[in-house]
Specification:
The protein is mostly beta strands and about 350 residues long. Helices cover about 15% and strands about 45% of the residues. The chain is built from five helices and 15 strands.
Length: about 350
């Protein structure tokens, strides 16, 4: 949820799958009925929005069992209507800007080889995340309303307050991924269940000595009920060859990264009176190292939302994968968590 249940992660077509399993014609029927009674000056976009809301708030029945669309399903349903609109960028993980991010233990040791630059790093910097996804199929693949997406997430840490150096971008992480998502027919505890499988690359695009990267295959099981969403996402790292020497551009830049970032993460999200709460936990059960992140976003003005983020542990960025710190940031969310 971070931003995503995200996840990375935590996007799947549960809402659309529920429509398929429960009543595939409700949206089309609503459109036809609305067009018949609408005035001549009513736009098609308004009619679509009204029917979208009607579908999202409707309680469906499937095999005599009620199916309630949760907060994540309603978001995905809204996204589906504009998935192929060339003028709309669909969010993947959360998009936000934190003008102030404070670290209790800035990682300076890694930069010792580049003179006194690290000594001029400030404890407060800026951080932002931009994330989007693109659907790659226009029809069903294996089951009704499944989908394959390409996603891209960019996250940067900017030393904008470092007055004695040229205010560099201390670190930027790039995360392209392909993932398949689909609904399931199961509704435990009167909620909804979906799954996602994917493969992703994550790197910081640096030169030897500062390069960090890894590739992994992941799967996720996602549960929602009402305003609550949870996702468990285990992964398997795709192996790389050892470096022939430390300065070689070939081979694994960080062979011990799983010791600190673990083998799975758990994301949680809940919305209450327009306020979104999110949590992320990741852990290596052997080394007992990992991290957790907490987030709160709240309405401010128009589409802008205030956003507060707290992080504790290893891997706040790739260059910091083996560095333990706490960070606290405050800023603006550009897209809702749900």
């Amino acid at each position: 949820m971070h931003k995503s249940i995200c996840c990375s992660v935590f996007i799947f077509n549960l809402a659309i799958g529920n429509l398929a399993m429960a009543n595939t014609s409700l949206y089309d029927t609503c459109l036809l009925e609305a067009i018949k009674i609408a005035s001549d000056d009513t736009s098609i976009s308004v009619i679509k929005q009204l029917c979208q809301l009607k579908v999202a708030n409707n309680t469906f029945k499937n095999s005599n069992k009620e199916i309630h669309l949760g907060v994540l399903s309603q978001r995905l349903l809204a996204e589906k209507q504009n998935a192929f609109n060339a003028f709309v960028i669909t969010p993947h993980k959360m998009n936000y800007v934190l003008p102030a991010l404070y670290s209790t233990n800035r990682n300076k040791q890694i930069y010792n080889d580049i003179g006194e630059i690290a000594d001029n790093f400030e404890s407060i910097e800026a951080k932002y995340q931009f994330s989007f996804k693109i659907p790659l199929n226009t029809g069903d693949i294996f089951i009704d309303f499944d989908a394959i997406y390409f996603g891209m997430t960019l996250k940067s840490w900017w030393q904008i307050y470092a007055s004695n150096i040229s205010k560099p971008f201390r670190e930027t992480n790039y995360q392209p991924e392909f993932f398949y998502l689909a609904p399931t027919p199961w509704h435990p505890f009167d909620g909804n269940l979906g799954f996602v499988v994917g493969v992703e690359h994550q790197s910081n695009g640096q030169v030897q000595g500062y390069s960090r990267s890894w590739n992994r295959f992941y799967s996720a099981l996602i549960f929602e009920k009402g305003n609550f969403v949870a996702a468990i996402r285990p992964w398997q790292r795709l192996s790389e060859n050892e470096k022939p020497d430390p300065e070689s551009p070939l081979g694994d830049d960080n062979p011990d990264i799983e010791d600190f970032l673990g083998h799975f993460d758990l994301t949680l999200g809940y919305t209450w009176n327009g306020i979104d709460f999110s949590g992320l936990i990741r852990q290596n059960t052997s080394t007992h190292k990992g991290a957790f992140e907490l987030g709160v976003s709240f309405p401010m003005h128009g589409r802008l939302r205030g956003y507060i983020q707290y992080f504790n542990g290893y891997g706040e960025s790739l260059i910091d994968y083996n560095h333990n710190q706490q960070t606290f940031g405050i800023g603006i969310a550009l897209t809702d968590y749900f």
